[in-house]
Structure to design on (955 residues):
């Protein structure tokens, strides 16, 4: 009989402890949160890494395998500098949307932290990856690693064949268009995921990889071979996915460059859901770690000083500065998501008259069902529009301000004051409007302008005409727009005009 | 127990992997690509990018106050542009957190520009402004910049490439290698921390132990009653609990540890001296001085790479010469005639007074617009060559800036031809003309370019 499981704030982690506490975590997740291992969550791969490896992982955007590009080196240096100068601590974990779901845990964490991090990532994020509609719709957790192996090798081979500089130029250009390289709606003819996954699985097999890769290289270096997305029914006009459009219609691009663009487009599409679900994803993961850690303490696996230690980390994670603070930068997704989900649970268990009026459908409902619905069937904007309660609006003391700066060219250079008006506050008349405003602020259009293909004269002089679709009277940063246009130029090969 | 651990089957749906010894340096390839990009952009840097803002600062990475003075380069090469809104345009609606005083309809103060007020409401996934610049120190910058340059290697004199250092104790620090651990100092911190953390528990522990002693003594009443037994049980349990708590506090925590700090102190006084001579008479306008300054700056940075302790001597001259500080050297302008030889004479005096030419690497640069009083030209040769000055120098550069003067006023030899004469008999003197500011860098490279095939 082994010793009882007992974790204090001074317990160092070891494999045995991690495996034993994981069993307890699983029991709580299954019995109390309705998250059945193997059904509601992917199998987990818990991997211990060093600080240096964590920095490495940052620079490949969390993917364990990525093609090489200087910008990832820049990201590495950026976080490395910040870390070394003490301006930034390292994350306790990084979790990847794969099957099995990989969680990287820092070796420096003590046992309390490892426990918290497993509850957070290996239960919380994992369940969102597996069940959230946005993820189910857009990502294929089972094939991403194999695809990245293919992408890395393919780009390496292109470097050998066509020169590193040529490849870099294509990647630079494709990266500049990355925000405009996602599909927001399914295409009529979606690439055959299963077929592709099969091919790529094949590639992952070391022995035949090289041969298969050669075949693909050969295939893609020949002109006039259709990529699977080449469907005749897409009309060029109004296309918002510029990467896709260029890959498909560029009059001058060799096939291998098209394949590289396709890789950037695929990687982008894979990350698209993460940007759409930050609040609910971090919210649910924090909800999970908070619930599980509390229960572990109640069940006698954590000492009280371990629990104090946990609470300290927990409050740092969900710390929300207010607008007056110097380090304020909007809502902390951990804080906002956690507050919303905790309140959903409270409303199921201890509703007030206000809750009965606002959330009649929660009355008498099991909190497990309600919380899972909130975390799995929405994305940030709809999640907030649907589930942000008046109590949370009051607790956070949310308010909205509005202002109009007009066109920068008409502005007085010396005038640096903006007239902003407080438009709504946390009172009876304001709740709905504050909630809608916060939901709107989560929409992608707020930070990625909409650029569409207006015309591509494929039969004539082949000029590509793009157009910025105005939003809220805002204009584009013309300087950067010029630089991006140069990049588009290099891919398109003929004149590119943009109507800002 | 350990046996059944080894044979126990893996936990279902759960894999544990210790990755620490595998897959290190994954991003090294990316970093190499980044470095290459930076190097390429530095190598193609324009002269405007390297205005060093002063000779002293150019080499300050090696100086006593070795504050790195970052050079901002490669910004263009490292930007990753995207389509984004001009933050100063259009309508905005922000949701802020922490309303303390605001009512609906209030005017909310905000300022324009970078901050966009307090509430630049960063939405989910917002990229933020990309104002990351690779800041490299000047010495790193010059490493690349001077990659294909070398000091003309005339003869191996008494140079010592490596200055001598001694290690000196310099207090304590929080990081270090185990060999430097200061045990006593660390223990003091540990003691203080443990005392502070366990104080309440120890107080209670002492009281309880006293009580237990009393309970077990003959004086205690109700010896056999249930109440007594309950109390004894409660007290012993609590004592055990407190003991565990006190013992659970680690002897050493990361925060306690202190390491001995040592500092490298340079003992050697000076390896090299760079003497800068410049014509500051009326004909040397701001533009010409800027060219000279730029050349001097590059030269200093270059020499300092080889000799960390490099002295500087500034000698401006009109028809007379004096030694000044850097500030004055580049800012004063005097009118009057132009007589070159006194500057060289003064230089020779200074060198004789302060330096042992056998021990110090002496470099001299002269910058002027080629103007000299005709009758002084013979004196120049005398002061430089015949006096024995040239023999003491390691290398000298004559820089002529601006549009050069044709012939001397009286039809005699120009300063340029005088210097040419000297150069033809001594390989130590290099001569260049710099017509405009953009040519400074190329001129520098002609002087110091690596000569292939040389041993």
């Amino acid at each position: 009989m082994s010793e009882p499981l007992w974790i204090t704030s001074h317990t160092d982690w070891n494999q045995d402890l991690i495996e034993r506490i994981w069993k307890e975590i699983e029991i709580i997740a299954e019995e109390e949160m309705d998250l059945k291992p193997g059904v509601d969550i992917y199998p987990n791969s818990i991997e211990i890494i060093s600080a240096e490896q964590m920095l490495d992982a940052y620079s490949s955007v969390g993917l364990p395998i990525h093609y090489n590009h200087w910008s990832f080196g820049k990201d590495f240096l950026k976080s490395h500098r910040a870390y070394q100068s003490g301006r930034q601590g390292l994350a306790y974990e990084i979790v990847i949307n794969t099957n099995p779901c990989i969680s990287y845990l820092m070796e420096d964490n003590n046992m309390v932290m490892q426990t918290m991090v497993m509850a957070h990532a290996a239960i919380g994020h994992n369940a969102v990856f597996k069940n959230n509609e946005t993820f189910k719709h857009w990502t294929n957790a089972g094939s991403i690693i194999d695809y990245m192996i293919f992408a890395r090798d393919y780009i390496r081979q292109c470097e050998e064949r066509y020169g590193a500089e040529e490849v870099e130029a294509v990647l630079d250009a494709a990266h500049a268009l990355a925000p405009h390289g996602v599909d927001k709606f399914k295409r009529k003819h979606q690439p055959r995921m299963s077929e592709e996954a099969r091919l790529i699985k094949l590639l992952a097999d070391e022995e035949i990889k090289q041969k298969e890769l050669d075949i693909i290289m050969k295939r893609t270096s020949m002109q006039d071979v259709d990529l699977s997305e080449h469907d005749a029914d897409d009309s060029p006009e109004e296309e918002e996915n510029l990467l896709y459009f260029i890959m498909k219609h560029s009059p001058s691009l060799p096939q291998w460059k098209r394949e590289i663009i396709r890789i950037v487009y695929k990687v982008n599409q894979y990350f698209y859901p993460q940007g759409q679900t930050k609040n609910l994803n971090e919210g649910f993961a924090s909800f999970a770690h908070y619930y599980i850690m509390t229960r572990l303490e109640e069940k006698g696996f954590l000492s009280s000083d371990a629990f104090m230690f946990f609470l300290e980390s927990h409050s740092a994670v969900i710390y929300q500065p207010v607008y007056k603070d110097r380090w304020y930068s909007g809502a902390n997704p951990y804080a906002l998501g956690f507050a919303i989900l905790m309140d959903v649970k409270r409303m199921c268990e201890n509703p007030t008259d206000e809750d009965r009026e606002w959330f009649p459908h929660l009355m008498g409902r099991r909190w497990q069902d309600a919380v899972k619905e909130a975390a799995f069937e929405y994305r940030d904007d709809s999640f907030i529009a649907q589930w942000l309660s008046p109590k949370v609006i009051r607790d956070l003391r949310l308010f909205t301000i509005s202002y109009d700066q007009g066109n920068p060219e008409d502005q007085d250079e010396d005038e640096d004051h903006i007239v902003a008006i407080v438009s709504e506050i946390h009172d009876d008349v304001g709740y709905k409007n504050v909630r809608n405003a916060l939901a709107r602020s989560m929409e992608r259009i707020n930070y990625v302008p909409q650029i569409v293909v207006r015309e591509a004269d494929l039969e004539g002089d082949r000029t590509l005409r793009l157009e910025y679709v105005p939003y809220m009277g805002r204009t584009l940063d013309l300087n950067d727009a010029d630089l991006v246009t140069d990049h588009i130029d290099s891919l398109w090969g003929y004149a590119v005009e943009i109507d800002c | 127990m350990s046996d059944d651990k080894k044979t126990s089957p893996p936990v279902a749906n759960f894999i544990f992997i210790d990755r620490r010894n595998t897959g290190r340096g994954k991003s090294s390839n990316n970093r190499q690509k980044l470095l290459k990009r930076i190097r390429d952009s530095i190598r193609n840097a324009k002269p405007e990018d390297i205005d060093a803002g002063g000779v002293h600062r150019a080499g300050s990475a090696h100086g006593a106050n070795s504050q790195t003075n970052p050079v901002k380069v490669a910004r263009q090469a490292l930007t990753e542009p995207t389509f984004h809104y001009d933050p100063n345009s259009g309508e905005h609606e922000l949701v802020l957190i922490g309303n303390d005083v605001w009512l609906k309809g209030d005017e909310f103060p905000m300022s324009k520009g970078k901050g966009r007020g307090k509430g630049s409401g960063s939405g989910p996934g917002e990229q933020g402004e990309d104002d990351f610049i690779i800041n490299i120190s000047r010495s790193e910058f010059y490493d690349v910049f001077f990659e294909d340059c070398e000091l003309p290697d005339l003869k191996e004199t008494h140079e010592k490439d490596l200055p001598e250092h001694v290690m000196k104790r310099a207090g304590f620090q929080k990081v270090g290698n185990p060999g430097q651990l200061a045990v006593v100092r660390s223990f003091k911190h540990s003691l203080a921390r443990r005392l502070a953390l366990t104080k309440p528990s120890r107080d209670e522990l002492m009281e309880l132990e006293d009580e237990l002693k009393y309970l077990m003594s003959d004086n205690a009443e109700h010896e056999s009653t249930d109440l007594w037994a309950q109390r004894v049980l409660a007290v012993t349990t609590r004592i055990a609990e407190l003991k565990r708590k006190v013992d659970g506090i680690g002897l050493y925590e990361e925060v306690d540890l202190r390491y001995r700090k040592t500092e490298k102190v340079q003992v050697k006084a000076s390896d090299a001296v760079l003497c800068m001579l410049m014509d500051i008479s009326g004909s040397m306008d701001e533009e010409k001085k800027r060219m000279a300054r730029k050349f001097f700056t590059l030269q200093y940075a270059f020499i300092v790479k080889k000799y960390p302790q490099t002295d500087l001597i500034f000698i401006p001259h009109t028809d007379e010469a004096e030694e000044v500080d850097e500030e004055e050297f580049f800012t004063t302008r005097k009118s009057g005639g132009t007589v070159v030889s006194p500057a060289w004479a003064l230089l020779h005096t200074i060198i004789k007074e302060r330096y042992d030419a056998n021990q110090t690497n002496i470099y001299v640069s002269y910058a002027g617009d080629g103007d000299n009083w005709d009758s002084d030209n013979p004196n120049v040769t005398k002061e430089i060559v015949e006096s024995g000055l040239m023999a003491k120098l390691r290398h000298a550069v004559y820089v002529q800036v601006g549009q050069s003067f044709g012939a001397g006023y009286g039809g005699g030899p120009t300063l340029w031809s005088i210097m040419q004469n000297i150069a033809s008999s001594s390989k130590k003197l290099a001569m260049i003309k710099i017509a405009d500011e953009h040519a400074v860098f190329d001129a520098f490279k002609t002087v110091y370019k690596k000569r292939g095939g040389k041993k």
User: Anything to note?
Assistant: Chain B touches chain A through 77 residues (CB under 8 Å). The two ends of chain B are 70 Å apart (CA to CA). Chain B is about 35% helix and 15% strand.
